[in-house]
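Ligand: nicotinamide-adenine-dinucleotide. Inputs:
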Amino acid sequence: MAENHTSRVQQISIGPKNGDGTTVIDIEAETESENVEPATQPDIMANFDDTLQLARLAFASGKTRNVSFRRKQLENLLRCYEEHENEIISALEADLRRPKQESLIVETEFMKNDIKHILYNLAEWVKPEKPDKSFVNLLDDVQIFNDPFGVVLVIGAWNYPLQLLLVPVAAAIAAGNCVVLKPSEIAGNCAKFIAETIPKYLDNDCYPVVCGGPTETAELLKQRFDYIFYTGSPRVGKIVHAAANKNLTPTTLELGGKSPCYIDKSVELRTAVKRILWGKLINCGQTCIAPDYVLCSKEVQEQVIVEAKEVLKEWYGDNIQSSPDLSRIINQNNFQRLLGLMKSGRVAVGGKYDASERYIEPTILVDVKQDDAIMEEEIFGPILPIYTVENAYDAIKFINSRENPLVLYIFTTETEVLDLFVNSTQSGGLCVNDTIMHYAVDTLPFGGVGTSGMGSYHGKYGFDTFTHKKSCLGKNLALLGEKMASARYPPYSDRKSSLLSFLLRKRRPLPNLYLSHVIAAGLGVGLTFLVNYYLQKESN
Ligand code: NAD
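Predicted complex:
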């Protein structure tokens, strides 16, 4: 069966502006796989140069520094999601056969809530921060300005093709940057929607969309950006990081890996199994934070299998393939890769597949070995291996012998067990007695550690990711301050050194603002006398 993305047609040229003055770069190339014909390379490079130049000029003009401008762009983006919800759902259905309910929850509603959260808080976030002052700076202005980086590049992945691109884009806009948007070419229908529709809502020069696969992205990465935000595999993450390194460009990498799920016998298994299977099966397992494999005792494993069979029947009926509620695998490459992984261990649940639809039945594998392929590479499909362990210590040893996961799932009601995992493992995040839902808590940072990623975003953390914290110490030139500081000037002496060490000594923060003003005034007067006394003695 022909793949969606194999016949995808992309055009390249910096188009004439759309009706509302937006620009889209499309790339005309038939993309067979990861390799795209390099024939149009010089054109691509010229166009990338032009696009970047326009974005740089737009940033230099200062228009994205204007908070009302940013707000307007975000409101437009929100309107875009609202006005094109059905189109978005259709594009996701065409790429992934994604059920409408999942598209609503994990893409459109998520993106709308994300922008609303930004709009509600933007006025507060953009304000210069006033950190605590130490004794020596009591009379000074100590501030942190929230500066945009400049022109940033956001590269999205195919599995949540809109949300993974547009949520960081919204954060970058909020922080006052110009943004080049690069959707994943693998989810071709969503990339087309982004290229054709998003630019109708956003400023033309500040937020261009660039389409293409690895070849075009590699060309794009030769450009100098002020920040790069990448979502995708650790393999490509290394390529992006190496390219960014050439210009010392700061980078956030939202990567993947294997997220383990430990279950102990203290939990109510029916609920645990439902939550684990839901996390594994939304988007047919093609989720960076899907529980990748289960760690539990043999006894728990047997009960999980019984519960799982019942839950799957309750959700999808007797013929799972005919259920409209299970997505399909994105393409034949991934489908074939998953069939290979299913050869590990023994099938305890499921195991059926149909290549013509890229359908794989929800499958549980048991008797897998530590070095089986399914226990080595990220699964990214509806297959759940169970690896048996004796206890929590065993599970922790297993987890710690591998790369740091993006998230660690723990199902337990025992506080000691939970504490053990919290204190003895490293992961991007933790989610206890549920799966996936931590992603939707917009006051929590989302990101990996080690090979699962670097940096984080969501809510305020997204704003901060795209913000340079510009520190500023503001002093006045009045006599009092100058007197206090004059002990720093040569000629140096022991007396001046001891005065300086007294002034600079670290002290506990002052209790409250009002009190600190009173103390500051008193200290100012006292110190002036003290400094005068010292300096006069010095000059005698
Ligand atoms: P993908 O193939 O869509 O690639 C991601 C992006 O990288 C695309 O825009 C693509 O054009 C670009 N790209 C691909 N090859 C490239 C190359 N050689 N040079 C430059 N750019 C290139 O997505 P994927 O990598 O298959 O995504 C799956 C992986 O992403 C999984 O590991 C998953 O766990 C991870 N992921 C992580 C998150 C997260 O938030 N941490 C979210 C989704 C997916």
